[in-house]
Structures are given as structure tokens and as C-alpha cells.
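Exam revision sheet. Question 4 asks you to relate a sequence to its structure. Input first:
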Amino acid sequence: MSESRRSGPYASAVNWVEALSETQFAYLLLTPALILLGVIAIYPLASTFSMSLYADQLTGSARLGEFVGLQNYIDLFTGARNYALPSAFLPTFTSEFPFVTNIYGSALMVTLIFTVFSVLFETLIGFGQALILDQDFRGRRWVRVAIIIPWAVPIVIQGMIWYLMFQPNIGFLVGTTENPALLNQLGLIGTTPLRNTADSLFLIIVADVWKTSAFMALLILAGMQSIDRSLYDVAKVAGASRWQQFKMITFPLILPSVLVAMLFRTISAMRVYGIIETMAGCQTVPSLSCLVVTTFNAPLYGTSATVAFVTAGIIAIVVSVYIVNFASEDL
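Answer key, C-alpha cells:
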């Protein structure tokens, strides 16, 4: 039977497979999954782009559903859609950054500020938490649970907790004009911080760092615990200090884990929406995702699709630059 198959219709297929290198054979096995992933990823993008080429009730004099080409994109970048989008931050950014002349640019600045500071502090705090959890001490299990709890809290519940904490008549962290709390006296925030754009953005970053540092810690800890402990034994025999062990062993070996964690958090932070909506509202702190949701609910589907497609492109560019420049050898 096997000989007949070898000499029959199976022969060419078998010979073709056997002629493949190991790398080519691996790609062959991955092909079905890659095709499925491509369809899942490409179809929504293509559908969104197609929708962005048609008019909604804000596309000039065009009728609803009429093909307008790139007019939605032109209107978005020239500020012709400003009146349809949340605009709380625009006056602030136009005074500080003259090149920001439209609502989309303002939302992009909000998103970038949030992403940079949240990812930076989450990485630093998560790194410290991972170093603590990597030590062998009594009660480490309970410390790990305490660190993970904030990450396990749903975003809506977390947002409401922080919202109530900073309400002047309810929360204990802010006071009133007549009876200011410590944070007010220090000048860190006003008496109505969640109605002020700058204070709101600051508190949203703090809340996100509080929640997501544990995620960074777990990824970094996984990298730490994969390090061969015999390396530290050799370093101790060689007389290396704890700082030298960290500098020469720990940090270089966990750097790939840190980069992966930062990449995941960058992607997630660029899409921030839930914590903003529950704490301050998109009208106060408009992020890129806020613009997508706001225009979709209007409903302005052409504008929403335009904002979504441009935002997806920006996220893809940021991630690509990150991988090429910082993690090309580690991812």
C-alpha cells in the first residue's frame, strides 16, 4: 500500500514536502492559522475604511450614504469636524502647542500623554514589585495577592471608586473651598478635580498606574523566575555584590520580558476609554477611543469610521517603531 501511494498521486506532494527546509515546513504548518488571522484582522479594517469613504450628516453638502472619497479624512485633519467632537482640551492645547488646531490632534495629545506616563510609571513600579516578589520570605503569597487585587478589579468599579474618592462632598481626598483637604492645601489638585481637564488627566493616570502595575509585575516576575539560579551562585563565589548581580545578570536577562510587557501596555494605553468615561467623562478628557465612541453614538458612522481607521494606523505605527528600534532582537 505504501509503495503504491509513493508511486501514485501522493508522490509529488510527498516529494515537495520533503524538499522543504525546516523553516519552510514550519511556515507551511503556520499557513492556515496565518490565513485565518489575516481574515480576522483585515476584514474589519477593510470594512472600516470602506465606511469612512461615505458621507454622514456632517460631510458638507453630500447626502447621507453618498460616496465622498477622502473628504472625511480632510475634514478631520483640517478641523471641519471640531463641532461634532468632544472639545474640552482644545483651548488648552492650542495655547501650549500651536500646531494642535483640531480636536483630533487634541485627543492624540491626550492619548500620548496618558500612554507615556502610565507605561513609564507602571514599568518602574511593576519592576519594583517583581523584585520584591522574587525574594524568598514568609508571607510572599499574601503579598502577591495584595499586589494582584487592584488588577483584578473591573475597570468600571475601579473608575467609580476613584470618582467617589475625589468628589468634594463625598470623597476624603478633596475638600471644599471653605474646608480644603491636604491635597488641596498642597496645591496638587483643585476642589473639583474631575471637572478640570488637567487634574482629571493626572488622576486618571494615577488610577491606571494603581491598577495595571501588577500586570507589569507579573510579566517581569515570570522573566525573573526563568533565570538559572546557578548564575547567582557563581556570581556570589566571584564576590559580586547584589547590585553587580542585578546589573550583570538580572537586568540583561529580563530585558526581553520588560520590553514585551511595555509593548502590551503601550497598545492597551493607546486604546484607553473605560477609566476615562467612568472617572471624568469623555467631554472632560477626550482620548482617541472617546472620539470613536462619541461619533459612533451620534450616530456619525462615516466620521467614526474615519477616526477609528486613523487611530488604528497611528497605533500600528507606534508599535512598529517600538519593535524596530527597541525590541527587534528580543521579540
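Marking note for examiners. The CA atoms of residues 31 and 43 lie 18 Å apart.
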